[in-house]
Structure formats: C-alpha cells, structure tokens
Amino acid sequence: MFFKFIFLAILFFNGLAVALDFKSEKKPINVEIVPKNGIFKSGDKLFFGIRFELKDGWKTYWKNPGDAGESLRIKWEDESNKTQVKIYFPFPERFLDNDLTTIGYDKTVIFPVQIVPENLEKINETLVLDYLICREVCIPYTETLNTNFDFKNILSSKEFSKFLKSVPKESNNDFKLKIKNSKKDYVFVEFEEKKGRQYDFFAFLEQANTKIVNEEGKSSFKIQIDEEISKITSPLLISITDGEKYEEVSLFLNNNKENNILFYLFLAFIGGFILNFMPCVLPVLSLKLYYFSSASNKNSTQIRNDCISIIFGIITSFIILAASILILKSLGQTVGWGFQFQNKYFLFFITTLILVFSLNLLGFFEIILPHSFQNKVAVYSTANNRFGHFLSGVFATLLATPCSAPFLGTAVGFSMLASNSLIFVIFLSVSVGFALPYLIFLIFPQIVSFLPKPGKWMLTFKYFLGILLFISSIWLMSLAGINNLIIFLTSLLIVSISFFKSKNFFNRIFLLSFLIFMFFFYIKDNKNFNNQTVWYDFDKQFLSESINSGKVVLVDVTADWCVTCKLNKFTTLDSKRLTNYIKKNNIVTIRGDWTKKDNKILEYIKEFGRYGIPVNTIYGPNNKNGILLPEILTNDIVIRELNRVAINEDKSE
Question: CA-CA-CA-CA torsion for 326, 329, 334, 338, nearest 10 degrees?
C-alpha cells in the first residue's frame, strides 16, 4: 500500500507538469474491438478481442498491476443487458520504473473476451471500457465502443490466436506447483523445474495484493501478501510459463492439508462409501442385496467371482469418468461432478436403460415377449453372468454421479486443481470406497448366510425394487424435458398393465401406492405455492450488490438431476421452519440452476474449490467472503450460519 501512495504522489505532481503539453499531443493509445462484423471461436467458446495499440514508452496493466496501476474493466452501457462477458489476460511482462515494479503490456496487446450470447444471433450494443495507461504520467480513460457481433459469422485471426494462446490455462499438469510453507502474510511456492528452461511467473489474489519478492531458488519463490492469510478464502492464482506452455494454477492458502494427498485420498474413499447410501444409489444397492440373498446356494468361490465382476465394473467406470474429464480439460473445457447429466444424449441413454431394467423387474416383458425369446435371453444371461455383474457395477456408478456425499465434493474439487495423475488416483479412491460393500462380501463370503433365506418374499421385494427404479426413470424423463402429463399417462398405462397381470396382494398394494404418489406428484408440479421462499436467479452482480449493501444472503446452486440437492430442498431449504426464518429476517435468497451447462455458475462454485453440486453459501456483514455449507443440510446448520454472518443482534425464528 505504501508503494501505491508514492505512486499516486508521483502521478499528481508529474500530472501538473505535463498536463498542458499532453493536450497538444495525439492520444497515445488506439483501442478497437475485433473482429468488426463477426466473432471468433475456440472450442465451443465464442470470443471477441479488445485491441490496444500503445505508442512507444506507454503501457497498460495485467489483472495484478504490481506496485501501481489498474487493470482493464468492461461493462455494457445498457445495464439491463445480461449478456455475460469475461476478460482473459494474456501472459504479461514485468516493468521497473522509479523503483516500482509493475506488471502489464506495451506496444500491442489483444485482451480476449469470452461472450455468452444467450440464444441471440447478433449483438449491437455499446461496451464501456475503464483502463489506465502510463509513461511519465498516468492517464485513466473511460471509453465507449460500439459492438457489432454476428454469431453466425465465425472468423479467424492469427494475431488474436497468438494472444489467446498466451492466456494461461487452468491446469497444474506441466509445472506441478504446490505450497511449500506459509506464514502470516507470505507463502513459499515450489514447482518442478526442467533443465534448459527459463521460467516466469506472476501471482494474483482477488481479496488482497500480492507481490513476488524473491526467488528462493530456481524451483521456488516467495509471495508477499498484504492481508493475513487466515482471512483469505479465495485461491491464490499463479500464472507460470516456460516460454512454450502457459498455466494458471489455483492454490488454497488456508488449507493446511494442501500437500497431504493421503488426506484427500481418505476423504475420497469415505465419500465414495457414503455414496452407497444416497437416494440415487439405494435402488441398485438393494438389487445387489436381493442378489446376495438369493445366492445362499452358491459356494464361496462363485460369490467371490461375482463380487470381483461388480467391483471391476465400478472401478472401470470411474476410470472412464476420470479419462473423460482429462480429455475435456485438454480441449479447454472445465467440467464438474455429474457433468454428463447436462448432455441430452446421455440422459436419453440412461433413461431408456433404467426404464427397461425396471420394466423387467415388474414382469412387463413376460407379458409382451414370446416365451421362446425369454428362454434365449435367460440362457444368454446365465452363460454371461460375470458380464452381467460387471454391467451392474457400471450401472451403479452411472446412477451415483447425480449424487454428492459428505467429503466427496472436497476430494473431487481438490483433484480438479491437481495434476492429471492425481485425478485418476482420487477417482480410483472414490471407486474403492463405493465398492466397499462388495469388497466385504469378497473377503467374507460367508456373510451371505446371515441374510434372509430365499422364499416368496423375494418376488414381492423384486416388485418393490422395480417400482423404485421406475420412479428413477420417471425422474430422468422429466430431466429430458418430457411433458409431465405424458409421463403421468405413460406411467398409468404401465402400472395398470402390471396391476392386472399381478396376482400378489402386496404387489398390488405397492402399485396402488405408486399411483397415489404419481397423482400427487403431478398435482404438486402444476400447483403454485404462495408460501414458499422467493428465490432470485443467480447473478454475480446482484449477489455483490446485496453483499455490499449489508444484507444477509443465502445462495443455493442446484440442478434438476442432483438428487442430493432435491433432498436438501425437501428436508431444509423448502421446510416451513427455514422459510419462516428467511421471511422474518429478510434474508436474500439466490438460486443458481446448473441443470444445463452454465459457465458463470461453474466459475462461481470453483471459487470455493468445488466442481460438483450441491453448493450452498452464506454471506453477511460479518463475512462478506462467504461461508461454504456442507453437502447435506439441516435447518440447525443453515440457521446457525445465517446468525453468524449477520450483524450482532438477536435473530429469531
């Protein structure tokens, strides 16, 4: 802060001396929007560029300007324009002026700006730019530029591509940075050095100013921070290059277990095990218990072989998930836990699979398929029993991904910021935890003898499991955008056929209960409730305004495919107790819908080290940086944290 004071003093006195001379000179910078009538595209992202052409000796600044300066800021002149834009900063240079070290650009630079058009074909709006340029004197500018973006006219530019390529990518694959140690207001960072390479690096922290004050050695450096590290919640961003590759690495300062990989492996293992008891996985787990109950006539070797097949299916599918994430990361995409449920083709596939599975358990195929075909399927499934168990492991994993469990979000979030190899290791640890029930049967197959013996009860239980899976398929149909009336009528037809076909009293009770459930589900979905909390759509600017105005804010990031999110809504967020508390204490409630891919929501949850949902945060006068709540919520937890962030006064329920 002292350096900035000196800088402003120099700026003031120099400004008095050169002001009159400067008026007679031409503007020392030319600013333009590129391209003129089109748009650039990289991967699936759309970009335009803000091109600065500076005269000799003039410079502008990076997002961390160093000892002095201000970085570029942009906004729409029409504040009602909700089109999202995000500036990317190319890798900068370091300048030394009057013993002040500044970070920025000279001569020519293009700032790539990502734009999310929201179903528009063209945009003709005015963009407002705020920036600072310096030589002996610094001149702040506020400039308006007209834009003309045609999103159907995809253009290319070697100059733009050069600057976009120099934007550090969010990764830690090549340099493998990690925190060596930290004190009250500084941190030592080390990285893997390769012989013959020259490295350069810069630091940025949203909540404080940072400065690289010295290099301990060729493979480590010290970063000074003008705020106590214990008060910082945002990640420290390190931009690093060896002249060929550019990376931006996120390091969390207050995580004293940052380097303890075993700690995160343990969290991943525990999170994977707890995942077995989440609502989305219980039907599959119940099916496996059903199988083991019917396997009492099998010997230990057969049971072990079946368990190995299931475990192999689980581990293989988690490895495929990790590989998919790495492929998408290499293509410049950032994804989170459950990302595949944002893909309509995957939704169609998994919906069809679960529907067929449930209809089979309900005996539906016994009605519509010839006996000769059923016999052939039975012979094939018996001959390929191991493959069937392998697929059931894969099936369980697919159903598990829309759920999050305690500890799982922390472990997966850590892996997304780590190296490629560590992503595989973390996902492998999750898979082992998820497969733990089957590992127990593998080691102790005699446990089967303690399960209920096979009998007529299994037919009823099988029917019950079929209904559970059918409910899952209905939920997936709604995610796929199928009209609720069509879902209701289709369900009514299937259940009616099963009802008249079944002679079992309990089966009919289950089916009648299901019909009643479906009726209330349909009525509830088409009824407006006046007593519920009013949730504002997620908007980062509205969130910032609410926080800065001293309000208490509750943010809920959710998705229709997130079962844990639904559970939190049912037990807590939509409960009468919390709803009354929110209304009585004028809490601002904001909800981000991540059902479909939304980069601005992903960027928000990444601020808290999360790459999956649910994510629930609370802000208030006593904590404007935000408190991250656990994955599983209760009324007591939410109300306690809301009281903590509020001004010290009695908050009543």
Answer: -20
